[in-house]
Amino acid sequence: MKSLKLALLLGSALIAVSPAAFAQSKGGVINVATIGEPPTLDAMASTADLVGIVSQHIFETLYTFDKSWNVTPLLAASLPDVSADGKVYTIKLHTGVKFHDGTDMDAADVVASLKRWTEIASRGKQTAPMISSIEAADPATVKITLTAPYAPLVSLLAFNNAAAIILPSEKQQNPMTDPIGTGPYMLKERKADQYIQLTRFADYKSAEGDENGYGGARHQYLDEIRFVPVPDPNTRVEGALSGQFDYVDSLPVEAFDRLKDQKATEAVLLKPFGWPVFVMNTSQGITKSQDLRLAVRDALSMEDMMAAAFGSTDFYTLNPSMYPDGYSWKTDAGTQGAYNVADPEKAAEELKKAGYNGEPLRILTSRQYEFHYKMAQVAAEYLKAAGFTVDMQVVDWATLTQRRADPKLWDIYISHSPFLPEPALIGAMSTSAPGNWDTPARKVAVDAFNAEVDPQKRVALWAEVQKVIYAEVPIIKIGDFNALSAKSPKLEGFTPAPWPYFWNVSLKQ
Amino acid sequence: MTEIMTNAPMSERSKFFRVLIRRKTVLFGLMVLAIFVVLAVFAPLITPYAPNKLSIVNRLKPPDMRWFFGTDEFGRDVFSRTIFSARLSLMVGFAVVVLASLIGVTLGILAGFFQKLDAPITRLIDAMMAFPDILLAIALVAALGPSLTTVIVALSIVYAPRLARIVRASTLVIRELPYVEAATSLGISTRHIMTRHILRNLLSPILVQGTFLFANAMLAEAGLSFLGLGVSPEVPTWGTMIASGRQYIGKADWMTLFPGIAIVLAVLSLQMVGDGFRDLLDPRLRKDL
Amino acid sequence: MLRYILQRFIGMIIVMFLVVTIVFIIVRVTPGDPAAVMLGPEATAADIAALRQQLGLDQSIPVQYVYFIGNLVQGDLGQSIFLDQPVLQALAQRAEPTFFLTIFSLLIASVIAIPIGIYAAYRRGSFFDQAATALAMLAASIPSFWLGLILMQIFAVRFGLFPVSGYGGPGTSLTERLGYLVLPAFALGIVSSALIMRFTRASMLDVLGDDYIRTARAKGVDERRVVLKHAFKNALIPILTVVGLTAAVLISGAVVTETVFGLPGVGSLVVSAVLRRDYPVIQGALLIIAALYVLINFAIDMLYLVVDPRVRY
Fold first, then answer.
1. Residue B92, domain member (yes or no)
2. ipTM score for this prediction
3. Contacts of B233 in chain A (CB under 8 A)
4. B146 in a domain, yes or no?
5. C41-69 pLDDT, tens per residue?
6. Using a CB-CB distance cutoff of 8 angstroms, which residues of chain C are in contact with residue A403?
7. Is domain A29-225+490-507 classified as CATH 3.30.750.24?
8. Are A298 and A343 in contact (CB under 8 A)?
């Protein structure tokens, strides 16, 4: 785990991001346009990126990722000591850390929070069966005992959504009533659909070391950060162009040309950012049939979907592998003849084999991410050509996340994910994630991968997992895409990241 | 409202001119409408491309000889889609007029003719009309689940009371007309009176109101679709086209421009025709509005 | 007269009651178990059953109806599912932009429409009159969201004169907040000016034909004075009525316009509530708006009684 050797995720940013060599000035307020109103601020309760983006300023986890996507301590003092049998993790805590309500963080808070995480958070629930106990060894040490070696544990503790955030032991209610964390910024006011206002937390104790991705020092230059929900992508573009916002998240790539040569804003391109995915309901309904799932995949043209969604190849790459170039996880295993097939006849045959009788194929998608919706529209035409009856259900993202949890309500939903530093974090790897992929072949491949600690061997085992994914089609990877956002030229010290953060950011005077 | 002579200078010529203009606008409106209807009916024959035919390589092409109105983000032909939208938008408008008229006329005549029913029906109409139309339509579509049919049903429910109120008023007037009174006193059956005298006399106001209703229903459908609460987004209507073109304003203006112009033209022509109908068919309702 | 007022009052109560009933029916027709929606995906069947009992959803429809009315009488509109706050509070928080947007648009519409209407009536049949009538028809044919998009593109994006969307951050002053309303108010105002213009023209024509105007003219009273003072004064009541009616129409327009401009008003609250399946909010918003409409109508009727001596019952 310590040697999680991963290639750079943060690729070329179009803007030159200077390291914090220059003197950054303190003070100022920034407005950040987000894709909508987060359903909650409880980072444990949601896997939504939006929740992660906002809440990571308020709450902190024991670990986080540095700029090379290695796990690095945040509220922990160091990486854990792992016993020889790989089952006991001893975690020393960073001392002198205060919560926003003024109380000190200690092992009791951490134990209570981690227990809450195993009960509420989807990633926590996924981990829960592996954990036999979480206890405080002393006020500054926590001990986690596992039932079997589980390599992804520390990565899971480092993640910022469905996150193992540390809350005061007396503030563990679910749903969360009082967002009190240890982060550099604290919640001042939340007006639903209007803004979330965060202010500097005066007693913040930063992690040690230089700024390093999400890890290292977190400087609080800004007085205030305001997250403003702007659900309409076009309005976000206009808001960036007019200079109304200092940072605008998730823009349609079509806007790229319009962001050129602007005074008020400049483009931020994160390359590659992630992968759009069609998640199939493998537990109920017509997509329970593997032949039907194959038919869906073979009907689709990844090329047309990516082109419709992202415009030019500057913004996307066709890639069947679950990881892009530069990641040790990249492999072609299992992908031959199974990607970008776009063969309606083949799909029709598979459909016949599946005994399909024109039942509506319910595709759940949202317009909050315009590219989801565009891919859905292209997919619908290709699926119809193969003989599917398509029932497209366009809802807002919050509703989608709610509905996908009920397997009775959908057959396919469209989502996307950043390239995650640890493959075990990919949603479909968990049987409890929407889609509920749970087959003997999956169990063999995934269990072997999760139990192995040696990085070299894990790469080979991951190829096996990818083979099973391609054979059983629980998810369909569409391609790799780059993310476009925009920032004001006045923002200094901003590092493009999949979940943009605004500590270490300052305003040019 | 009676014809009023003002002392403002107005020559015979300008009066004549005015009537002519009125007629001219009606003529214009009718012609535009006729063109829309022809386009809608023969859409598959006229359009160069199928409305949902994707052509990703040709996405966002500006208008030229191949694509008169350019192409959208999926390389679909905006011209073909605009025409197919006419089909759905006109169909929605027409269906709403028919359904709303059926409900509205029934309620209106019942209220106007039978005094016992007047109070309850009028109160119901008042209550329904207390809801702003789009808001009520949104709630109804939410309740019934979004689809083409529910949009039609919802808009009909929204507009029927408005029609019922007018029909009731007209029925009250017609009921008091000498020959209807005479018919009643002669013992001619109520049903006969209703179908023969009242319905016939109601034709004009219904036609006039129906035309305006048509225009309103089309605007409302566009609004609902624009909000993503109307028909499914892949169904081409002018509202859904503008909604999806919105993102490309400044880059592919033709995506919002042409369907927008189509709505304005269609609604405008309906209003002109409605205005003309009001003047020509129904002198009793004639207003200088 | 007292009898009339009493009659009107009882009529209003009946209409109010019907409004409540209609809302109740719409919400009951809506598919999906509200309890399941409220508790979210993680809820167990037992949790849902418990909440159903707590909400009274396990009762028969008539019993639920009685509870619904009972809660309403106590001013309880229920709890928003998504926002996790009382519906009344959520509505109150969003009333400001909607209120000012309505006022602004009315103002803009009146300022455009009333002078044009007066002059068109005065120069009846002239080119000006015809042009004004045609323009009014055109204005009424433009979807307000389309106009909003065009105005936003020109004045907010190209010239940067106004903010594109939203309603200001924390601590923005009222004047700054009102700046966010200029473009949406114009989009709505222009579209709704048509009705006011045509009505003003008609009322003025009506009054200009009255005897006392002829008398005034015969007496040689200055023409401008005749039109603006005598005629307009008398045409004012019907004009004010249509302005009031337009306010109600504007709320419909506001639903779409608020969404275009990202204004956190009642209209956009309803739209997002529909997308979020937040039924209590939809229900509450419908009730409040319809009730306001009924009350305003009643108030206008009463006002007529006071203002217009010609109204006799």
1. yes
2. 0.85
3. 367, 373, 377, 392, 394
4. yes
5. 555 666 677 777 777 777 888 888 888 88
6. 41
7. no
8. yes
